[in-house]
Amino acid sequence: MQKYVIKDFERPSRKIIETFKEFDVSTVYEAQGKQGLFHHSIKPVQYGKTICGPAVTVTCPAGDNLMIHAAIEVCKPGDILVVSTIGESVSGMIGELIVRALMYRGVQGLIIEAGIRDLRAIRELEFPVWSKSVYSEGTTKNRGGWVNAPAICGGVEVNPGDIILADDDGVVVVKKEDIDSTLEATQKRIEKEQGTKEKIAKGELSLDFYQLREVLQKENVIYYDHIHDVK
Question: Which reaction is catalysed here (predicted)?
Answer without folding.
Answer: 4-hydroxy-4-methyl-2-oxoglutarate = 2 pyruvate; oxaloacetate + H(+) = pyruvate + CO2
